[in-house]
Amino acid sequence: MTREELIAKDLLSIKAVFLSPEKPFTWASGIKSPIYCDNRLTLSEPKVRNDVENALAELVKEKYPECEAVMGTSTAGIAHAALVANILDLPMGYVRASSKDHGRNNQIEGKCEKGTKVVVIEDLISTGGSCIDVVNALRDHGAEVLGVIAIFTYGMQKATDRFADAGCEYFTASNYDVLIDTAIAEGYIKAEDKDRLIAFRNNPSDESWIK
Question: Hey, how many other C-beta atoms are within 10 angstroms of the C-beta on 147?
Fold first, then answer.
């Protein structure tokens, strides 16, 4: 079993990722979606949590062996960044969505000197916008962002384009395509649902997949 398959199986088993092509979810944007993702649930399941954090740590070591610190996205990436930093014995911090309106008005919490080689830890990459904001905040601070490591991605073209435009790469412990194949193999969904799920991913604004 590959790392991607293991994490996909784990996420499905605890319903951190839930597929429901027959009864779509509605995202905050209003988009109808056959998938719902809440990777915070991995923190409540020791076995899954261990698999996820080890997978993230392995990716950091494989892709960015020169990493000097990990920085979590606020708020979902904070706990994962802390656990990964502990495994790797590295400094850790996190980045707020915006600067605080009190105290020292920090947006970046934790020690992050200029020139520090950092990897951003994220739980989920959908369209990539909020994660790129974190990357830009760290760059503005003077950090050298090596890349982003996340638990899961929908693999949407908008995210691919945004990361390319930002000159930042990302890697994930699992992904939408592997998840779908794993869900079929494990009996969570039917094989005939695959085309509809791929159609959604390729064009989320086109709801024809629902029919």
Answer: 18
